[in-house]
Design goal:
Elements (H helix, E strand, L loop, with lengths): L1 H9 L3 H10 L12 E2 L6 E12 L5 H14 L5 E5 L10 H9 L4 E4 L2 E2 L2 H7 L3 E3 L1 E2 L8 E4 L5 E3 L2 E3 L4 E5 L2 E5 L4 H23 L4 H8 L3
Helix pairs in contact: 2-6, 6-7
Length: 216
């Protein structure tokens, strides 16, 4: 069921999902607009796999590598990994890690932090959303932890199992218990939008199109 829902969600787009969730009375589900895709045409959908991190300048490099490779090993196929690093000075994703996640079937990576090796990651086509690029590495400085634990990014609560849709406009989080209803309603709204689009292209006045379909 999760796989089918992810496939349906992937055919949606964040703006339509946003409008549906707003109409449902939901709040605080859009990640900060500073978190952007490395490639503007990127798109990813799937259940979240959440984790966080912390700065520890005294940590041994070995412990950093063990913590990071534990994440790479445990992120399940089909998921979108979502990280709250509690840090904005180093890169929390790089080329070898992106290659690893892509090979394991992970659909994308969203981080409230940084990325490096961005040219290589663009070339391999692994979808990443982040705040900034930097060559600075995490080794001996930052430690990932709390795999599958709830996190918060920009006032948005995110749990493992919630659904994520990310595209060129940004990232939205669908609560797991509402995701199926949200996707179904988004599909209905998109079908109506297609009718409005056709009417406009066929020459209908835009205000008349709105009054007929109550959507624009």
């Amino acid at each position: 069921m999760t796989g089918l829902l992810s496939e349906r969600l992937a055919r949606c787009y964040t703006a339509a999902v946003h409008d549906v969730m707003r109409a449902m009375g939901l709040r605080d589900f859009v990640l900060p607009h500073e978190i952007v895709p490395l490639r503007p045409d990127s798109k990813a959908a799937g259940p979240a796999f959440t984790f966080r991190g912390r700065v520890d300048p005294g940590i041994a490099p070995h412990d950093t590598y063990m913590g990071w490779t534990a994440f790479l090993s445990q992120a399940p196929a089909g998921c979108i990994a979502v990280c709250q690093p509690n840090n904005r000075t180093v890169a929390h994703m790089g080329e070898l890690s992106a290659e690893t996640l892509k090979r394991r079937g992970v659909q994308g990576y969203v981080v409230d932090g940084g990325c490096r090796d961005v040219t290589f990651i663009r070339q391999i086509g692994f979808p990443v959303w982040c705040r900034y690029a930097t060559p600075a590495d995490i080794v001996g400085y930052w430690l990932p932890e709390g795999l599958s634990s709830p996190i918060e990014i920009g006032g948005v609560a995110i749990r493992t199992g919630d659904h994520v849709l990310a595209d060129g406009d940004g990232v939205v989080i669908l609560p797991q218990e509402r995701a199926s209803d949200i996707v179904a309603e988004t599909e209905r709204v998109m079908a109506t939008e297609n009718q409005v689009r056709k009417a406009i292209l066929d020459g209908m006045d835009p205000q008349q199109a709105y009054l007929r379909y109550r959507k624009f």
